Amino acid sequence: MYNEIRGSDVDRNWRTIFFHNYARPRACFTMWLALWGRLPTKDRLYKIKILTDGLCSFCGNSESIQHLFFTCSYTAQIWQRILTWLGYKRNSGDWTKESNWLSMESKKKGWRRILLRMAAIESVYQLWQARNALCFDQTVPSQDMLQHIQTAVILRAQTKKCLKNHVQQANLEIR
Q1: What is the pTM of this model?
Q2: Environment class of residue 22 by beta-carbon count within 10 Å: exposed (0-12), middle (13-18) or buried (19+)?
Q3: 150, 175 contact by CB (below 8 A)
Q4: Are 38 and 166 in contact (CB under 8 A)?
Q5: Residues 29-66: tens digit of each pLDDT
Q6: Count of CB atoms within 10 A of residue 94's CB?
Q7: Among 11, 36, 96, 113, which is least packed, fewest CB within 10 Å?
């Protein structure tokens, strides 16, 4: 009966990214909007005739959610450095590939997976903030964006009893 009432909506496997995630609430909300495809990227704004161009503020290619997170040369470099910092050795892909990978990794247990979920959400949030600053305020994003993400993850993780010792033992430092 429940399934009939609910309908045949596609199961959102990315919801596991939010389980036991200690990232900032505003960052979680930004990630939630991104996963639903509701962030006002330039391609979406261009369709409703709000902006005149649809170009990525970081690299000049066409900006979409697929491009902006993890495919753009600027954002891909930051995401790759975050993955290396957390001890993951893999090449990043586009938004769909990375969100599916994050969903599969989030189902696994362990403190490193919790940090990965936090880092992914904080990365999307920081990149979105930098994009907005560049797009609307014409301010260049700071060179230490990686440090901002790492600081947010470490500070939030150190407040949690289950993560504090692991962060210290793994020597996760801001680089």
Answers
A1: 0.88
A2: middle
A3: yes
A4: no
A5: 999 999 998 999 998 988 888 876 889 989 999 999 99
A6: 15
A7: 11
